[in-house]
Amino acid sequence: MHEMSLMGGVFELIEQTLSQHEVERVLQVKLRVGELTNAQPDALQMAFEAYSKDTICEGADLLVERVPVLGRCRDCHHEFNVETMFFLCPNCQNTGIEIIQGEELLLESLEVE
Ligand SMILES: [Zn+2]
Q: Which residue of 13, 65, 82, 85 has the lowest C-beta tally within 10 Å?
């Protein structure tokens, strides 16, 4: 499952962050998930539960914020929401598009006690 490996990366970040602080329990984990990752919320939740078992993250709430795909035209530098997998600048019809948002899976915040 694709989401398991994504979540593996998230937990490495969580462990790095927590190792610098004294934390008893993690209450909430917030992620920003780009649409291009194709990560499904249900599968992310399952992966989160699997990774958090027997750690201080166990029982924490997982919040997933979906991030739309943003492209930028290499020609006219127009920025736009990419609605389909057909990458075309709506301004000048150029197909040289750079993806500037939507491929990421980021740890947005951790709520701890
Ligand atoms: Zn353009």
A: 85
pLDDT, tens only, 2-20: 999 999 999 999 999 999 9
Decide: 34 and 48 in contact? Cβ < 8 Å.
no
The owner of tokens 């990560």 is 39
pTM of the predicted model, to two decimals?
0.83
The ranges assigned to domains in the chain are: 2-68+102-112
Tell me the pLDDT tens digit for each residue of 84-103.
Answer: 767 899 999 999 999 999 99
Q: Which residues line ion ligand 1, judged by CB < 5 Å?
A: 73, 75-76, 78, 89, 91-92, 94
